Amino acid sequence: MKLLCLCDSPTRETGFARVAKNLLKRWHDSGAFERIDVWAIGYEGWPYDPLDLPYTMFPAQRYSEPHWFQPENLSRFLAMVESGGYTHVWIMQDTFHFSGLAKPLKDACKRKKDQDTVLFPRRCADGHGLVRDPSRRQSSGGVLRIRPQ
Description:
Elements: E1 2-8, H1 15-30, E2 35-41, E3 56-59, H2 71-83, E4 88-91, H3 102-112, E5 118-121, E6 143-146
Parallel strand pairs: 1-2, 1-4, 2-3, 4-5
Antiparallel strand pairs: 5-6
Helix pairs in contact: 2-3
């Protein structure tokens, strides 16, 4: 299995980054994924310790488009979803940033003809931050599965 994560860079000190760093370590140590890539919000490409962060990180933004949720950056992310051979996509970010991503992401999964590929943690109005392990098959709780029709 191959996992692509869209989240705050584990090199940062935000709440989302700390949660992501802990979950990424757990998933790496579990051996459930042969590869973990991180589309890292706030990561600018500087070297990092691969023993501390044992996965590949890609900057989610460019200098010309500084916000990860701008259309060109989302297009790069969606191209990675489609071409990277990922079995799972895990996203953790404030939901108000996803107005331009939900439908294109679902469409990308349809084009790949994937089933149960995208896991979307619900961290919405309730603020509970429920996050489930994408290496386990589940259909309720803090995870919404997007199933292509």
